[in-house]
Amino acid sequence: xxxxxxxxxxxxxxxxxxxxxxxxxxxxxxxxxxxxxxxxxxxxxxxxxxxxxxxxxxxxxxxxxxxxxxxxxxxxxxxxxxxxxxxxxxxxxxxxxxxxxxxxxxxxxxxxxxxxxxxxxxxxxxxxxxxxxxxxxxxxxxxxxxxxxxxxxxxxxxxxxxxxxxxxxxxxxxxxxxxxxxxxxxxxxxxxxxxxxxxxxxxxxxxxxxxxxxxxxxxxxxxxxxxxxxxxxxxxxxxxxxxxx
Length: 245
Known about the structure:
Layout: H1 40-55, H2 60-66, E1 78-81, E2 84-87, E3 96-99, H3 101-108, H4 124-142, H5 144-147, H6 153-161, E4 169-174, H7 176-185, E5 197-202, E6 208-214, E7 217-222, E8 240-244
Antiparallel strand pairs: 1-2, 2-3, 4-7, 4-8, 5-6, 6-7
Helix pairs in contact: 1-4, 4-6
C-alpha cells in the first residue's frame, strides 16, 4: 500500500515522480524515489517553497551557475546578488555579469574590475530542511520499512513543516582547489552525476548523519537535533563551515 514518508498518509494521491537529487543538481533516472512514497500534497509543499528556496540560495545557486547546470526546464542558471546578476556561460572560465544600476557606470568605464559575491546562505533553515528531505528519501530508497520508524519523526516534521524541538545544524565543505579547476576546465553533462554521493552513516555514538557530495561540495546534517560539533585545528574555515538553524 502506498504511504507517504513525510506525512505518513495512505490516502494520496501519489502521482509524483520524485527525484531524490533534483534534476537541477544533476539527478537523473538513477535518483528517482520508488513510486508510492511521496504524496502530491507533500511534493507541492517541498517543490513550491522549501526546495525552490534552497536551490536559489548559497551554495547550490553558485554551484549551478559555476558549472552551467541547467534548470529542470533546461534554462540557463543564474543568481542575483547586491552588485548585479551572474549568469552561467557555455564557455569554461567565463561567466556573464550584468551589474545592478549603481554599478553600471563604474563597470562600463572600467573603474570597477572585480565583483564580490557573498558566500553565505540567506535561509540556512531551508538548506537544512532540503538536506533532511533528501536524507529521508535515501533511507526510504534502501529500506522502506525503516523510514517510517518514530526516530525519524523529528526530522520529518522539521523538513516538511519547519517544526523543531531543538537546534539543527549542517556542516559544509568546499574544496577551493577543485572549484577553481572546475571553473577553468568546465564540465560536461555526463560528469554532473559521477562524483555524487547520498548516504546515511551511523557513528559510534549511534548518531545518524546524512552525507551529500556534489563535485567540489560536501554537506553533512544529523537526522535529529544534535549537539553542534566544534571544528578542530584540521577542520577550519573557509573550507569547513557550520551553519546552525
